[in-house]
Amino acid sequence: MKNLILKTLGFTFISTIVFAQEGGGTKTIVADSTQQQQESVFSISVESAFTNSYLWRGIEFNKGIILQPSVNLEYKGFILNLWNSTSILETNNNSIAQEIDFTLSKIIEPGNFYFEPALLLYTYPSKNSFNATAEASVFAAYYKGDFGLFINPSVDILSNSGGAFSETGFTYDHESEKIHIVTNFAYGLGNRKFVNYNILFDESQSINSNYRLIDINGYVQKSLNETLYIKPSFNFFHLIGTAFTNTLNTNQLNIAISIGAEF
Predict the structure, then answer these.
(1) Residue 154's domain spans which residues?
(2) 174: Cβ–Cβ under 8 A, 6 or more apart, which residues?
(3) pLDDT tens, 140-173?
(4) How many domains, in total, are found in the chain?
């Protein structure tokens, strides 16, 4: 186990999390003794992604060349995820300070239903103007074969208490021995506290509107061997309405390529 942990940490620092998995990467497994045995095994996965932009719920934080490594620890359905975004080359005059996020979640799979409540902490070690904040969320879905319906509401519980964002949509999730394909189509809605904190940054200006968007994302994960995999992915956002056209781009596209390892 010691050698395994050292190898995992070594891979992470050499590669020096890809996108925030809002409603993606889930699958249906009917609860049985096999699943219980798998959940009791401690597992580690690491991933390093290169992407052309850092987009979060349609909001651009970086553009150019961005590195996003992550570490995932899982045991008995509990998952601890550490995610980092570092801008290597910023081309749109955005801040190049790092972001480090921590997520603790629990997977619950009764039959064709899937639930994953989570607590997420956002931190900005070198951004004096950004306070750390936290969200509570739950991803809930119902699957029939490879197709599913999901909702993923989240609410800020720290610096912007009461700020809320939710996505509701359709998902396609197909997994075989060598390949895993996921696509999602969702409608996103943020309340006015979400807008004031994340888009207007509590400035004197005010927009009397909720934040609405269409979110289309997906990835293809291809196994290279028993440990390594490669994962190209994309995320497209389209803002609904004209309330934010002076602040945000109406259409945003993120493309990433990830290399990961599962132990």
Answers:
(1) 2-262
(2) 146, 180, 181, 182
(3) 999 999 999 999 999 999 999 999 999 999 999 9
(4) 1
